[in-house]
Each structure stands twice: as C-alpha cells, then as structure tokens.
Amino acid sequence: MAIIKCPECGHQVSDKAATCPSCGVGIQGKITKCPECGEIVLNDQILCPNCHCPLISTNNNDTEKSEPSQSHKVATVEPNSDTNGEGNKNEKKKKSYTPWVVSFVIALAVVFVGLYFYKTTQMRNELEAYENAMMSNEPAVLQNYLDIYADAPSEHRDSIQSHLEMLKKVDSDWTNAVVSNSKAAILRYMQLYPNSLHNVEAKLKIDSIDWMEATQKNTIEAYQKYIDEHADGMYIDQAHDAYTLLDSKKVNAEDKANISEIFTSFFNALANNDEATLVSCVDIILTSFLHKENANKNDVIEYMHKIHNEAHVENVEFRLNNDWTIEKIDRGNGLFAFKVNFSIDKITQLSGDSNSSLDTFKVKASVSPDNKISELNMQRIVQ
Fold it and tell me: Which of 170, 324, 335, 346 could pair covalently with 331 via S-S, beta carbons 3.0-4.6 A apart?
C-alpha cells in the first residue's frame, strides 16, 4: 500500500482505497502512472494533465484476475511511432517559439518607445537652443547652434543664419570704426546699432579720444570741455588736476596789476635817477640786462647814469603802453614766476631848445617769484 495524491482533488489517499474520502472519485483500479512524468492520473484520461503526454489504456484480463489490486497498465506510443512522435515534436516547437516571440515583441516595443522619447527630447532641445540663439547677440552662440543642429527645421536654420550674418556685419562695422580712431565714426556706429554689445566699449573709446584731444590742446577750455562731457569719464580726476594746474597758471587781474606796478616803479626810478628805488626793483643777479648776461645791480645803476649824462639831455621820461603779454610759470610750492613782453616809449627832453625825441622800445623781461625783475632787454622799434 502506498499513499498518493488524488488525481482529482490532490488530497492524500491510499492507492488501495476504493474512493477518495475527500472528493469521492474512484481510486482502486481507476488510476495509473504516466510513463513520461510519473504523475498519478485516472485511467480514462487520454492525455496526462501534467506533461500532456498521450495515454493508451490496455486491459490485461489475466493480469487483472491474478492481480486485481493493480492499476490498468498504460502504455505510451513507441518513440519510433511516426504519428505520435511528430505530434510531440510540434508541441515542443510551439512551446520553444512562444517565449522568443514574446521577448521580440517586448524588445520591439521598448525600442519604439525609446525612439519616441529620444526624438521628443531632441526636438525640445533644438527648440530651446533655437530660442536662446535668436535672443543672443554672440556670433559664437549662433554658429554653435548651426554646427550642432544640422538637421534642424530649415526655417530655424535660415533664421539663425540671417541673424548671424547681421551680427557679423555689426562686428565688421565696429572694427572699421575702431580702426578709423574717429569720434564721428564711432558715434555713427552707435546710432546705427543702439543695442550693440560694443556700445559700452564705444563710449570708452570716445572718452579716450576726447581726453587725448584735451591733453594735446592743454588749455583750461579743453579740460573744462572734457569735464562737462565726461563727468564719469576714466580721466576725470586727471582732468580736474590739469584744470586746476592751468587755472593756477592763468594770469589774473591781480597778477597784471602786480606786474604793472613793478615795471612802472622801475622805469619811474630810471627816469627820476632814483638809485634806491631802482635797485629795489631788480634781483641781485639778472640773467640778462640789456643783452648782458649775469648782470648785477651796478650794471643797472650804470645804465641809469648813462641816459642822464648824455649830452644835451635835460630830462628823460618813460611811458608804458600797457600792451602786456604775460606768461605765468609755476615754480612749485605755490610760487610763480612771470615772463613779460610789452612796449614802452622813451621821451628825451633836450636842453637849449624845446625839441624832444621819442623812441619806442619792445621790452622782454622776467619777474622772479619774489617780485623782482630777473631779466630785462630792450630793442628799439624803428618807425
């Protein structure tokens, strides 16, 4: 006796039991074993429910009579049988093909889904790159789009190409304006391309050109013009310093009055034969006096005596014409010297008659920072 599984309900039952106590199906004499897989099956089944192998029942009366408790023998078709062998082969082929077909279909679906998402991503990336390039003013950005998206829609590539050509022209015009180093050319460029990336550089270039012009002229007016036009310019501090320096060198009304007083005192002392006042107006050493280099005060006194001791000279008078040309020279530490040009009339009254002579001289002189005449030369103007 052996314990088996009921082929109907699967519960354990003795192979000698008449029926299954769970489902009531007949057991003794009603079951057999599949010769292919060894599964316990009912005698009346044609195919094994486990491996689907064909089952053929053979009734051996002698065997059943002598061994009534044994199950019916089930014989399988011989392997050499053409019909059943071919059936088994076809069934196995069908089983072996099915997984491959399913796998192929799944793989194909994965490929198509992947291609769809790849294509969608590429289109989205291309559109974003196109929009960014169209908003850019950098030629490199546009050229990069054309290089990467060679298969982009033709309308996109045409728009990018047109935009790129425009930017190249902008750059070309900028190069020409810079090479010309002309303020007018740069201003014209800024008017043509008000949104150009070069406009900041253009303003700096104009600032440099205006500063160069101011330094070349080196006048108060030139520096004032730069200050007015470039309040935030790169050279604004230098412009203020240069303006202040030139302004300090500018001859003002006080300077003119001081110069006039010095030379008026000198020539009045010369005319009045006033030695003390005369020498108080000059330096100890004059770089040049009446074309004599390194002259001293005695040379000045000697000249005064000479003009008064000439024969028939009754009186000498000097009259300044006030046609001053004054240059102010910075000596540092707030000290200034002056170069002075002017003309003077010398009126000589002769003795013995009422005649007088008039001579006009061009005077070239210098005044030291301590307000002393340091140079004085006179040249008669022939009339």
Answer: 335
